[in-house]
Amino acid sequence: MTKDNLDDFISRFQNLANKAGYDLDQQVTLDLFQNGLPNNLVWNCVKFDHPYNWASWTNSACQQHKEYIQLSNWLKGNKVMGGTREQWTNALTCRRDPNAMDLGRTRARTTMTEDEKTKQIKEGKCFRCDQKGHISRFCPQKNNRIAQASTSSNDSTVATATISSNKLLSAVRT
After folding, report:
1. Which residues contact 102 (CB under 8 A, 6 or more apart)?
2. Could you list the residue range(s) of the whole structural domain that residue 63 is in?
């Protein structure tokens, strides 16, 4: 495929595959189709849309290519939608500092090796609380976690916050 003619590539590929008697939904044919696409386009299709047959591959490729064209048009100028070209490029290439602290809402979990997971499954233990009789999705301790944080200052003010998964209670004692 050459630049900006995805529709021509798809129609020519489909025409030639039909003439050769290839089934468009077979994995071999889909692999040939992917080999004709730019690597970044294939990567984005797989990353965002998870295509599995001819129709989903062509729809995904068209959608990702359309988004690429829109983005490249936005980035042609130095100022783009409230940011500079460099800022947008950095944001879209997802260069993250591996040492940066994650401030997302997800909580960190301890990672288990495959052997540990297999052992937990064989013993019928929950991944969350390590008890038998249920799985982590139905763990009774899932909503009972309580975190307490307390701070104090020089003038004997103590603030205690109790955080439950369902409600937030706070009391301040002086």
Report:
1. 108
2. 6-74
* Under 8 Å between Cβ of 56 and 47: no
Q: Are residues 26 and 63 in the same domain?
A: yes
Residue 59 lies in a domain: yes
The strand pair at 83-84 and 147-152 is best described as unpaired
Query: What are the tens digits of pLDDT across the range 106-160?
Result: 555 567 788 888 888 888 888 888 888 888 888 888 776 543 334 444 444 333 3
Q: How many domains does the chain have?
A: 3
Q: Note the pTM of the prediction, 2 decimals.
A: 0.43
CA distance 30 to 169: 56
Q: Is the dihedral of CA 20, 22, 28, 32 positive or negative?
A: positive
Same domain, 118 and 162: no
Q: Which residues on adjacent β-strands are paired with residue 100?
A: none
Check: CB of residue 25 under 8 Å from CB of residue 14: no
